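Let's sit down with a protein and look at its sequence and fold side by side. We need material for that, and I hope you will provide a protein of your own picking. Once you have written the record down, we can walk along the chain together.

***
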Amino acid sequence: MDEIRLMIITAEPSTRLGITSIFSSEEAFAVVGSIPPKGAEDSCVNKQPDAVLIDITDNPTKYGSVISQIKKQCPYSIIIALVENEHYGLLSEVIGQGANSCLHKGIIRSCLVKAVELACRADIIFLPGTYKRVISEVRPDNKLEQLRKSVTTETLTKREMEILHLMSNNLTNREIASKLYISEPTVKSHVSSILSKLGQKNRAQAVVHSYKIGLINKPLVDRLCN
């Protein structure tokens, strides 16, 4: 299996050194860069990494444009943001800028490695548990309720709704295919259609958007380190 080419971005030299040390010792990864946020976009464009692990804990609001630019110029890179508890209210914005997953900065080493690998290999979404509870409790206002009805009745098919719910529970395309007795390429096609119809760039955005408008309301399931 090919190595995952990883770019590490963080403003703290000690954090940069620590994370680099973790992934450099893993056979599944090849660290292609470990850099501060300044100039990160250019480095990512030059390297076109498979994954970008970006630490946004010092000031999440200032990294939105960095994430957006990286995603725009490296559309096939999986972007994973490291966040702190007090920043969970900003995660919708971070995901909206193009982050594929968000992990707590205090996550233990083995789980961090596993999460990044699963996000890249299986397109699994990771969101902090506290944030999941927040978005699962969102109640749509009238405008969002109208949007929910419009999406449900006029846009997404019954099969796409089934797949959307399974996506929200972190099932991989292969697991969804097995559960629904359809082929994996068919699942991929449905996922692409769901993203297009919801106007979202990736799975994380589609799931969060669906929670916000009340399209789905079942809490996401954590599978990391189980």
User: Anything to note?
Assistant: The longest helix spans residues 184-198. The radius of gyration is 17 Å. Residues 95 and 151 are 21 Å apart (CA to CA).
